[in-house]
Amino acid sequence: MSNPVHVSDSTFEKQVLESEQPVLVDFWAEWCGPCKMIAPVLEELAQEMDGKLTIGKLDVDENQNTAMAYGVFSIPTLLLFKNGEPVERIVGFQPKPQLMNRLQAHLS
Predict the structure, then answer these.
(1) Which residues face 54 on adjacent strands?
(2) pTM score, two decimals?
(3) Domains (range + CATH), the chain
(4) Tens digit of pLDDT per residue, the chain (108 long)?
(5) Considering 25, 32, 38, 67, which one is annotated as catalytic?
(6) Angle at alpha carbon of residue 5, lines to 41 and 33, rounded to 5°
(7) Which of 83, 87, 19, 7 is nearest to 51 (CA)?
(8) Is 54 exposed, middle or buried (0-12, 13-18, 19+ CB in 10 A)?
């Protein structure tokens, strides 16, 4: 069973860009209501997709450099990275079925 991993400015390259498998990074903040709504969905995905997809969580208040580098201005923003490149951007809360539909094309 896998849980979301915490990602920071200093670990982003190693944990996300150099990852062997796709990484879905959740750009979030403690004060963000929709971020709290999507957190349980991402925890479920982390367990269900263990071995196929890594879920990373990056707190934008503590890691502004990475958020700015990828143009994250609204949260939650989910960026799916594959082979070190962002391939999908999802802004705002998404129910699990819609989220899976957006991700599935990149995970096969």
Answers:
(1) 23
(2) 0.96
(3) 5-107 (3.40.30.10)
(4) 579 999 999 999 999 999 999 999 999 999 999 999 999 999 999 999 999 999 999 999 999 999 999 999 999 999 999 999 999 999 999 999 999 999 998 987
(5) 32
(6) 45
(7) 19
(8) buried
DSSP run (H or E) holding 80:
strand 77-82
The CA dihedral of 91, 76, 13, 54, to the nearest 10 degrees, is -90
- Asked if residue 75 lies in contact with residue 27, where contact means CB atoms within 8 angstroms, the answer is yes
CA dist 12 and 33 (Å) reads 24
Residue 76 among the catalytic residues: no
Catalytic residue among 16, 35, 67, 90: 35
H-helix or E-strand containing 21?
Answer: none
Does 22 sit behind a cis peptide bond, omega within 30 degrees of 0 on the bond before it?
no
Active site residue 32: yes
Cα–Cα distance, 14 to 34 (Å, whole number): 28
